[in-house]
Amino acid sequence: MAHLSQRLEKGAAKAAPAAAVYSARRPRSATAKKMFPYLLVGPAVLYLLAITLYPGLFAMYQSLFVVKFVNWSWAGLGNYTRIIQDREFWAALGNTAIIGGLSLSLQTIIAMTVAFFCYRDPFVRGWRIVFLMPMLFMPSAVAFIWKLAFNDGRVISDLLMSVGLASNNVDWLSSVWLARLTLIVADVWQWTPFLFIIFVGALQGQDEEIEEAARLDGASWSSIFWNISLPMMRPIIVVAVTLRGIDITTMFTNVYIMTQGTPGGATETMSYFIYRQGFRMFNFGYASAASVLMLLITIVIAQTIVRRAFKSGKS
Amino acid sequence: MASVRKSGGDNLLVRYIILVSWALVCVVPILWFLTIGFRPRTEIIVPEPIYWPTWSLDAWRLLASDWPIALYLRNSILAVAGSVVIDLVLAIPAAFALARYEFKGREDIGFYILSTRMMAPAIVAVPIFFLFKNIGLLDSVWALMLIYAAINLSLVTWIIRSYMLDIPKELEDAARTDGAGDLTILWEIMIPACLPGIITAAVIAAIFAINEFLFTLLIASTSKAYTMSVALANFTGGSDGVIYNAIALVSFIAFAPILILVILIQKHLSRGLTMGAVKG
């Protein structure tokens, strides 16, 4: 990135010939022609650098200090050695993986099933609107819907009792897996529509003739799905699930409103861990160290999985 | 087996059981939450849930009297609209360069822009908080505007880039032989031709900005710059517990415009949500 910003500065220094770009018909120097795309893309890149590079560097710097309000005292790598031994940090990483992984699998399976059963239905347009609804609520509102349904209003317990699945009121925040389940339900409810809309669009966009031909050969719908539709959709599935997976790993709002990490940190995600260390306990240096570690993980994931997904997704 | 069927799923009964049950899962919580908005406070947090409400307008009175909904609505609209404008001004030229020019580092720059979308808000939350604290922009709608713009810039750039890639080159070539310069081509050919993509990008960016929670929570540390999304969380605490009927009401006030926007771009939704990677 460094060489790029240097080049951008050079471009700014050459603003005089570049000004010629703005006149339509005058013949331009070769340099101005070469610089033109950088001038187009420059402002966006600089804006993003300001909002990613600066915070990244700031976090790295701050992570080397113990910050007590306005007093910064040098700690070297102390924050890092502490964090690597911090059970809560590893628990937060694990929780993010467990809750995120289960949520993502459920969403993918449900979205694919529902899309498969409705893409050739005569009422598909109506179904699409209905199945899209949960996604249109603000995430903070959705968190309250489920907080009320599970905990405060006891609606879910009541429904379970009425069908005989529970014998008394369930305290959803008292058990590790029940508390995680509430987060998973909220996320699946709100975000399955995201995957569904993409999958159903892909299925509807298929070439009908291939299906017709397979059907005339006596193939069943499910075998057409497994052998024709699914392989065709692969790149699309990879892109959609990757994007959803990225968002799940940043889960914060539901944790903040529904569980606050209880019981005993079993629902504390990475984002919530950083928030709590920084803005609840004011260990800003420590929170920054956690941010840096999370950033490293993000970069590795972005460079491997995401880059490949978006290359193959050019369907 | 041999009979001709019209749709996915061999068995109509199985199909409709699945579709109807998922539709119920989607719609029932929404309808139930809507009734919460019309109940008295005493009927919400109870040992035994009451399914049929005694209708009341408590929540409306509460919103009208001691909750500055107009201020939060104004903050939301200002920050979101401003951020979308910033995004379009920065993203349209960038998308044009990425879609139409050969230059060194194009792939890497494009991917760098995309990769900012992968960053968890929490990673930059602490530094961003200090940044805005130092330049004195805490509690300001302008700060939210700048942050929302940054969150969505990658998305807007990539969506518009994808639509620009679809525009036939011949259009430009014809204009070039007529002596049109690059900026004329951007302004008079590219932008009008990929208007659906620009609108799609703007709508999706607006929805993500309306929803943003973590940064708003930190930057708007007193309620002066609260947006609807974070103001909801403000109905908690205190001696009253969570004031669900007001929360429900506000959720639906925000839900309506989003629904209208999404129906507007329905055809382009899956392409927009995947940043142009899927031609829906």
Radius of gyration of chain A: 25 Å
Q: Could you tell me how far the N terminus lies from the C terminus of chain A, measured between alpha carbons in angstroms?
A: 29 Å
* Structure summary, number of beta strands of chain B: 0
Low-confidence stretches of chain B: 1-7
Main sheet properties of chain A = 2 strands, antiparallel
Order of helices and strands of chain B: HHHHHHHHHHHHH
Main beta sheet of chain B, described? none
Q: Helix count of chain A, per DSSP? A: 14
Indicate the low-confidence ranges of chain A by residue numbers: 1-25
Entry keywords:
heterodimer; A: 315 residues; mainly alpha; two-stranded antiparallel sheet; 2 strands; flat; disordered N terminus; B: 280 residues; MetI-like fold; 13 helices; 68% helix; 0% strand
Explain how this protein is built.
The complex is a heterodimer of chains A (315) and B (280). Chain A is mostly helical and 315 residues long. In chain A, 74% of the residues lie in helices and 3% in strands. Chain A is built from 14 helices and 2 strands, in the order αααββααααααααααα. Chain A has a two-stranded antiparallel ribbon. Chain A starts with a helix and ends with a helix. Chain B is an all-alpha fold. Chain B has 13 helices and no strands. Chain B is globular, with a radius of gyration of 24 Å. At the A-B interface, helix 3, helix 5, helix 6, helix 7 and helix 9 of A face helix 1, helix 3, helix 4, helix 5 and helix 6 of B.
Give the secondary structure arrangement, pairings included.
The complex is a heterodimer of chains A (315) and B (280).
Chain A (H helix, E strand, L loop, with lengths): L1 H12 L1 H4 L11 H33 L2 E4 L2 E4 L3 H7 L2 H32 L5 H9 L6 H14 L2 H8 L13 H29 L3 H9 L4 H29 L3 H7 L10 H11 L3 H29 L3
Antiparallel strand pairs in A: 1-2
Helix pairs in contact in A: 1-3, 3-14, 5-9, 5-11, 7-9, 7-12, 9-11, 9-12, 11-14, 13-14
Chain B lengths: L11 H25 L21 H9 L2 H32 L5 H10 L5 H14 L6 H25 L3 H9 L4 H12 L1 H17 L2 H6 L8 H6 L10 H21 L4 H5 L7
Helix pairs in contact in B: 1-12, 3-6, 3-9, 4-6, 6-9, 7-8
